[in-house]
Design goal:
With about 270 residues, the chain is mainly alpha-helical. About 75% of the residues lie in helices and about 0% in strands. Helix 9 runs antiparallel to helix 12 (about 185-205). The two termini are about 35 Å apart.
């Protein structure tokens, strides 16, 4: 029986509709961004030049990107060993952790940030008054569901017990087993969790606004309220920067993955 060489018409139709669903708004925003902010006529690249030459654009972008990287690193350091230990020693706790992971979906961000502001009110100024402390703590909680479910799926796809026993039978310690045996096997799940966390932090507005920190989404909102056509240019630039950051994470992950030896486990 010969394999089909062509895509089914229904699959092609749904793929085309999905492409148009995402492409048409971007194309309309692109046309809008090329209009002059004074005359309203097309076509000019002055709006993009205005965005690039804004100091607040680069400053807020740097803050949000560093917050995203810090959130990713802290989340991976917290959740990878925890989920590994749960799968290896106490699998009965998986439903409990999954329940806690659903709480950020139930509690609105505006309620969460008010509670965190009250809770950390008497904390040191280096934590409460700086985005690298308070915001990162809030973003780790906000990214908890995406981190947990992505990493949990990665751990469920491998045989943790067999890989651990094989590593320890060769004299490896717990840290060596986690870094050189387990982590390369869940690389795809860790990258997926990192992508989701990056997108969340780069686009989060409510927590940063109520805690009075000037991040990249705050700058985008300011431009949307004060400028017309430059807002369209800024939207496309932010969209491209987010995708470029995700692509860079993917390339770094693949480059490191090619150097690591992946051990296949059997159940």
């Amino acid at each position: 029986m010969k394999a089909r060489r062509f895509m089914a018409p229904s699959a092609f139709l749904w793929l085309l509709l999905g492409f148009l669903y995402f492409f048409i708004p971007l194309f309309a925003t692109l046309l809008f961004s090329f209009k002059s902010n004074t005359t309203g006529r097309c076509c000019t690249a002055a709006n993009y030049s205005w965005v690039i030459h804004q100091h607040e654009f680069w400053h807020s972008l740097q803050i949000s990107f560093l917050l995203a990287l810090e959130t990713i690193v802290i989340s991976l350091l917290l959740f990878v060993p925890t989920i590994y230990w749960v799968h290896l020693k106490v699998p009965k706790l998986r439903p409990v952790i999954a329940f806690f992971a659903l709480i950020p979906f139930v509690v609105p961000p505006i309620v969460m940030v008010v509670g965190l502001l009250k809770f950390f009110k008497w904390s040191p100024d280096w934590f409460y008054g700086k985005p690298w402390g308070f915001l990162v703590g809030a973003y780790v909680i906000l990214a908890f569901p995406y981190m947990y479910f992505s990493l949990d799926a990665g751990f469920r796809a491998i045989d943790v017990h067999t890989l651990t026993e094989a590593s320890q039978s060769l004299g490896a310690k717990w840290g060596t087993t986690l870094l050189k045996v387990i982590l390369p096997n869940i690389r795809a799940a860790a990258l997926a969790a990192s992508f989701l966390t990056l997108a969340i932090v780069m686009g989060e507005f409510t927590i940063a606004n109520l805690s009075a920190f000037h991040t990249f989404p705050i700058f985008i909102q300011y431009v949307n309220e004060s400028q017309g056509f430059p807002a369209g240019a800024l939207t496309l630039v932010s969209f491209g920067i987010t995708w470029a950051a995700m692509l860079s994470l993917l390339l770094v992950g693949r480059k490191r993955g090619t150097r690591a030896s992946v051990v296949a486990g059997t159940r």
